[in-house]
Design a protein that fits this description.
The complex is a heterodimer of chains A (113) and B (113). Chain A is an all-beta fold. Chain A contains no helices and eleven strands. In chain A, the strands form two sheets. In chain A, strands 2, 4, 5, 6, 9, 10 and 11 form a seven-stranded mixed beta sheet that branches. In chain A, strands 1-3-8-7 form a four-stranded antiparallel beta sheet, with no helix packed on it. Chain A is globular and about 35 Å long. The mean pLDDT of chain A is 93. Chain B is mostly beta strands. In chain B, strands 2, 4, 5, 9, 10 and 11 form a six-stranded mixed beta sheet that branches. A five-stranded antiparallel beta sheet of chain B has the order 1-3-8-7-6, with no helix packed on it. The mean pLDDT of chain B is 92. The chains are: A mainly beta (113), B mainly beta (113). Chains A and B meet through strand 4, strand 5, strand 9 and strand 10 of A and strand 4, strand 5, strand 9 and strand 10 of B.
Chain lengths: 113, 113
Amino acid sequence: KAGVTQTPRYLIKTRGQQVTLSCSPISGHRSVSWYQQTPGQGLQFLFEYFSETQRNKGNFPGRFSGRQFSNSRSEMNVSTLELGDSALYLCASSLIENTYEQYFGPGTRLTVT
Amino acid sequence: GQQLNQSPQSMFIQEGEDVSMNCTSSSIFNTWLWYKQDPGEGPVLLIALYKAGELTSNGRLTAQFGITRKDSFLNISASIPSDVGIYFCAGQLEETSGSRLTFGEGTQLTVNP
């Protein structure tokens, strides 16, 4: 069974731009969570989606948003990029809602210049 | 900010040695998970623990869910070079809902052949 896939793997943007990252969960998994990983803050929870609804949101500004489609694929969007948004963005999928066994994709490395 | 204290931050060991790392918190967790992350990749789930006192093994890896529900440890026996990587503990806080995970800062493991 294919794992979680994320596209693109690498991205370079400039301050003020916006970016959209994509995540395809493991086939059959319906819950998708997003995390930001930086050297200073470690892995921080962004949000969780299940059945196209945001179930949980972390402590990030409103510039960070996401959505989930009917096929469970998810996208996250960051508007008005700041230098501090440079990070590895990880998507994790799990079979159902409220399941803690989450399986991560390889991540998208975003660099903001 | 981080609510999990993971130690040690780094370890340098010889091949064949056993390794132990742990996570502690002042908060109660419902679930503990241990992940390993290789450079440029997402974390890979190693072990999941669901009950206080639970001891679970996965090959050379053994992890335990502390009886106070505030700590967990991971042991790796007879280390090999491919054990190199960053190990993260993660858990679901009792006070949170959904699949939101809180991560430790990670333990960087180096194995010298």
